[in-house]
Specification:
The structure is a homodimer. Chain A is an alpha+beta fold. Chain A has 4 domains: 89 residues, Uridine Diphospho-n-acetylenolpyruvylglucosamine Reductase, domain 2 (2-Layer Sandwich), CATH 3.30.43; 119 residues, Uridine Diphospho-n-acetylenolpyruvylglucosamine Reductase, domain 3, CATH 3.30.465; 101 residues, Alpha-Beta Plaits (2-Layer Sandwich), CATH 3.30.70; 71 residues, Alpha-Beta Plaits. The first copy, chain A, is built from 17 helices and 18 strands. Chain A has a 7-stranded antiparallel β-sheet, sandwiched between helices. At the A-B interface, strand 9, helix 9, helix 11 and helix 16 of A face strand 9, helix 9, helix 11 and helix 16 of B.
Chain lengths: 478, 478
């Protein structure tokens, strides 16, 4: 049975599940749930449901299971791969978690926090900060993304190097399954080796196996000191060598090691013309150490940099002498991302390779753009310490957007080919969603595909959960 | 079809899969594969197969799948929960990975290593050390356990606090599935957010979903300095408070925080009568910091301890002034484990609770022993920073072993009840195997059980992989 429109009976059943104020089915009411943060996708849906409790999420899934109605779980809608928006979603309902937005518990003795899935990341970070704790997940979208979406997409960000991806920070999940049953995977334990670690399945599954309604995370002591440096280097090779030395010489205190190609600075200046790179060099690195008390962190970083300059790895280095100056370094990193959005449509990638292959990735990708799309402008930046490079490409300003988008698809295909050729991934942190599904799926071995399909079928036999995201619709699988 | 004995046809098929030297079916040849390290279990098997290549493992699984013959994958056989030994395994074959024992690759630029599943952990650690790298997994059994078994059981150990469990250290796996297909999950990438993270399923699955044939792990820079202290404290409450302060004051440099009840010292002296605790206090802590260069680690630890003494958290503290002295502290921690084995049968647990509940766990457990088994001697030690306590209990020496074992089952049941009552786990790191299966399974919610069974069926529909381990035999599931 496929639902093509909401009959009065179905509307009444939905109202029974989420109450009269818990859903909207008119275009105006649905608009904000059907457009993404970056303006790249427009979705469709039969209705947007906004359950106000875990019980209501269960009622929604029981109803959808009965009707055979597909569901798109949605958090803050800040994803970049059309994971929570479906342009062909005319027969699906969006289930927004935004009304489940409470912090349930902060336990500073155990360094754990439990929150509803719809809790905004920044709210969680602020609550931890107020108790001298750190929840280290840090993303550009943290003011609007939700912790449930962070879990479902295994979010990354600038602190991965020190603290890991969302997967590494999650201790437990609470999930409503496709049949409406509730799985309580909370325990608050640091170590629990009791059979299959079921939460791992849902982390990064992009809503295709169930709806995450609650998340339990690890907290850390808030660092009491931070040292930030902005460095100029001659090449990406030098940057990778520098990182490897830093790993050895700075213990486990590196909290950021971001590579920025000098061509990115202009983009940041679109956001704030006052922005200027404190060094002049083709490759720039924003490096940050942080720690508790009792360590002379300034001397540690200063000596490291002096040694790196002496060895010729770094050509220029500015060690921030105030938090204002450190903020100005970060403004470059943040501004260059916003600047791309300001400039309009552009090719966005999220590639990862073995760390030692980063220079090859960048060199091959630049070569490809220079040869095949010479009027396009490549930008290189990323979390180099994780092997994760955002190699983005700006179309020439004079190219009309629809032409640029058509051409952009070729650019992306070429860049993916280069990453895959180096044994890399086309999705280091953004996920697969709908926009990368085909490249992802065709790149898998038959055995891998068979396992993915078997897991999907095991947990969502009717194919109701986020159909079309990550893997082809279930009917294709059998 | 159930295989009850090895017919000439089956023997010949096995020989076809692994060669004439690749299996043994006589009692003498099988003996070493059917007894565990701790001497707690005796197993049975139709035969022990020793494939010499990944292709041979595939051939074995194809054959077993055809015959409907159940398989027990086996690494170094150092597990403590009868996961690789089956006392009712008369109709099963053991597949030992011991001949797949090569290190395939060490990449010191990417800090990664790939090895065959049968590679002994100590061999891997030594190879890393020789290249100034650290593979931090550290277990008492490291001289004989194998990396594939470490992955399958999600091994823990003394370095979990700083570096995580095996799960946190694994970047990729290579697995032969129940149908003989090979899944290559190697990539060497730090970040790869591309759909379901399939390796997570096999980690900690105790051989019930496939045979791990290769493991890729993260390496770390070898610390260049280590500071070790042995502390005396008045109570377990003080130890937990001390740990929480240490987390804040010692950055992320704590590499061990082991709690030792003073009653354990006597056990260590069974191994070496020269062993003596450097402090006299009811609760003792072995604390270790480690780091790269450029940090005054000695001053960091010394100031931390001075402050803790001033605040009355620590009553006595000895900071090792030489590596010999540091080794003597570790000899206590290692000796107390060996001493228990030397003394004979004892109740062994591996409980975890929220860190703040450790004092309650210990107090309730001691109360239970004092009241219900007054002549038994409780021992408390463990990785307190992870919430993981080994609350073990020694029977009175005069009690005959078979009586002690019978009584021991009651002791274990009582201790599990206390841990579960505190929201804890009956298996922090040792796993479930066969010995804890019933308590584990009956403690799960119906929804959790249903999910476990669905995953098992999805990947091992014939129920061939380690039958009876972790979950009831598949026929019970449906």
């Amino acid at each position: 049975m496929t639902v093509h429109h909401l009959s009065p009976e179905i509307l009444s059943a939905i109202e029974g599940a989420v109450g009269p104020g818990g859903f909207t089915a008119d275009a105006a009411g649905m608009a904000k749930y059907l457009g993404d943060w970056a303006g790249d996708y427009r979705g469709e849906a039969l209705a947007v449901l906004r359950p106000g409790s875990v019980g209501e999420v269960q009622a929604v899934m029981r109803l959808c299971s009965e009707l055979g109605l597909g569901v798109i779980p949605q958090g803050g809608n800040t994803g970049l791969v059309s994971g929570a928006i479906d342009s062909k979603g005319r027969g699906l309902v969006v289930v927004s978690l935004e009304r489940l937005n409470a912090i349930r518990q902060i336990d500073t003795e155990n360094f754990t926090l439990r929150a509803d899935a719809g809790c905004v990341l920044q709210t969680i970070k602020d609550a931890c900060e107020a108790q001298d704790c750190l929840f280290p997940l840090a993303l550009g979208a943290q003011g609007s993304c939700q912790i449930g979406g962070n879990a479902a997409s295994n979010a990354g960000g600038v602190n991965v190097l020190r603290y890991g991806m969302a997967r590494d920070l999650i201790l437990g999940l609470e999930v409503v399954l496709a049949n409406g049953e509730l799985w309580n995977g909370f325990a608050g334990l640091r170590k629990n080796n009791s059979g299959y670690d079921l939460k791992q399945l849902f982390i990064g599954s992009e809503g295709t196996l169930g709806i995450i309604t609650g998340v339990e995370v690890k907290l850390f002591p808030k660092p009491v000191q931070t040292e930030t440096a902005y460095l100029g280097l001659a090449s990406f090779e030098a940057a990778i060598q520098l990182f490897n030395r830093a790993r050895r010489d700075c213990s486990d205190l590196i909290s950021a090691f971001e590579i920025i190609g000098s061509e990115c600075i202009e983009l940041a200046r679109l956001i704030d013309p006052g922005i200027a790179a404190p060094v002049s060099a083709p490759v720039q690195v924003l490096m940050e150490l942080s720690s508790g008390p009792g360590i002379d962190l300034n001397t540690l970083l200063a000596s490291f940099l002096a040694d790196a300059m002496e060895k010729g790895l770094v050509t220029d280095a500015v060690l921030a002498t105030s938090s204002v100056q450190a903020r100005s370094f970060w403004a470059i990193r943040e501004g260059l991302v916003e600047g791309q959005a300001r400039r309009g449509y552009h090719v966005r990638t999220d590639l990862s390779v073995r760390i030692s292959d980063i220079p090859a990735l960048i060199s091959q990708a630049r070569h490809f753009i220079a040869n095949s799309h010479p009027s396009w402008i490549p930008l290189v930046y990323g979390h180099a310490g994780d092997g994760n490079i955002h190699f983005n490409v700006l179309p020439p300003l004079e190219l009309a957007e629809h032409h640029a988008r058509a051409r952009g698809a070729e650019v992306i295909a070429g860049l993916y080919e280069i990453a895959v050729g180096l044994g890399g991934s086309i999705s280091a942190e953004h996920g697969i969603g709908r926009s990368r599904r085909e490249e992802f799926w065709t790149g898998l071995s038959p055995t891998h595909r068979h396992m993915v399909a078997a897991l999907k079928t095991a947990l969502d036999p009717k194919g109701l959960m986020n159909p079309g995201c990550l893997l082809p619709a279930t009917e294709i699988l059998s």
